[in-house]
């Protein structure tokens, strides 16, 4: 729980690198840095309607960061929570450098599930994915939905903006909406790998699933002065209402 060790839980922000596809530390440095309240925004407040609370944070590179990644940026993050429990994160990354830079990104979302063998993901069927367990080989998803019987570490490319994670035992569905993030990463270490991870309990893989809204296959490039925005909205609804919820527009 102490820096610079990454936390395994919540929604770590992977920037400016996702995974090991680059020269930086795994998943980049943003998730291991102390963020500040954004003084250009109200900090912690309620929206005008009173239906949600929000906080605005900002991250700028330190001298140490620029030694390993020599670019200047402003990363603004707005986190908001509605009274119904809908969580949204909006990231805005601006290039304040004199030259272009490229980055990959992910909201590394850890979901708590009742039993991984009773979970299915809908919305990714028939898509191509990169399999990180076999040197990022490209495959096509064949099933009607994604279920889990062994370790999974995949990047589904050009994925839809709405994805559902159905937990049959809890009769609950996580609805993930995203914008500006073309890919979806699905990860569960399963039994063998879980036992090799010092910060992960041997049995915790059964109650854990990561489904990440990401820009992982192709880097995002910003020219000087340009800004990129990536949005995530996460809701938990009764599975009986899932289809109706999927048809509703987001609140982002």
TrEMBL record:
Reaction catalysed by this enzyme: alpha-D-glucose 6-phosphate = beta-D-glucose 6-phosphate
Swiss-Prot/TrEMBL keywords: Isomerase
E.C. designation(s): 5.1.3.15
InterPro entries the record matches: Aldose_1/G6P_1-epimerase, G6P_1-epimerase, Gal_mutarotase_sf_dom, GH-type_carb-bd
An annotated GO BP: carbohydrate metabolic process
Molecular-function GO terms, alphabetical: carbohydrate binding; glucose-6-phosphate 1-epimerase activity
Gene Ontology CC: cytoplasm
Transmembrane segments: none
Principal EC category: isomerase
Domain of life assignment: Eukaryota
Keyword Phosphoprotein found: no
Pfam families for the chain: Aldose_epim
Similarity field: Belongs to the glucose-6-phosphate 1-epimerase family.
Protein name, entry field: glucose-6-phosphate 1-epimerase
Organism: Aegilops tauschii subsp. strangulata (Goatgrass)
């Amino acid at each position: 729980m102490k820096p610079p060790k990454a936390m395994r839980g919540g929604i770590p922000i992977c920037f400016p690198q996702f995974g090991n596809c680059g020269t930086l530390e795994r998943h980049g440095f943003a998730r291991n840095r102390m963020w500040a309240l954004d003084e250009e925004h109200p900090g912690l407040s309620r929206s005008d309607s009173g239906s949600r609370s929000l906080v605005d944070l900002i991250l700028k590179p330190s001298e140490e960061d620029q030694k390993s990644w020599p670019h200047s940026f402003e990363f603004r993050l707005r986190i908001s929570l509605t009274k119904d429990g809908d969580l949204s994160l909006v990231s805005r990354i601006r290039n304040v450098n004199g030259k272009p830079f490229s980055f990959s990104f992910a909201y590394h979302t850890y979901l708590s599930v009742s039993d991984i063998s009773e979970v299915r993901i809908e919305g990714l069927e028939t898509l191509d994915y990169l399999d990180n367990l076999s040197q990022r080989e490209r495959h096509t998803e064949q099933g009607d939905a994604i279920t889990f019987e062994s370790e999974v570490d995949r990047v589904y490319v050009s994925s839809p903006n709405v994805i559902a994670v159905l937990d049959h035992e809890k009769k609950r569905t996580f609805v993930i909406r995203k914008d500006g993030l073309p890919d979806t990463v699905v990860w569960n270490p399963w039994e063998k790998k879980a036992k090799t991870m010092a910060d992960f309990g041997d049995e915790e893989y059964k109650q854990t699933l990561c489904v990440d809204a990401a820009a992982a296959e192709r880097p995002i490039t910003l020219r000087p002065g340009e800004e990129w925005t990536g949005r995530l909205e996460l809701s938990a609804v009764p599975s009986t209402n899932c289809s109706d919820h999927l048809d509703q527009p987001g609140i982002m």
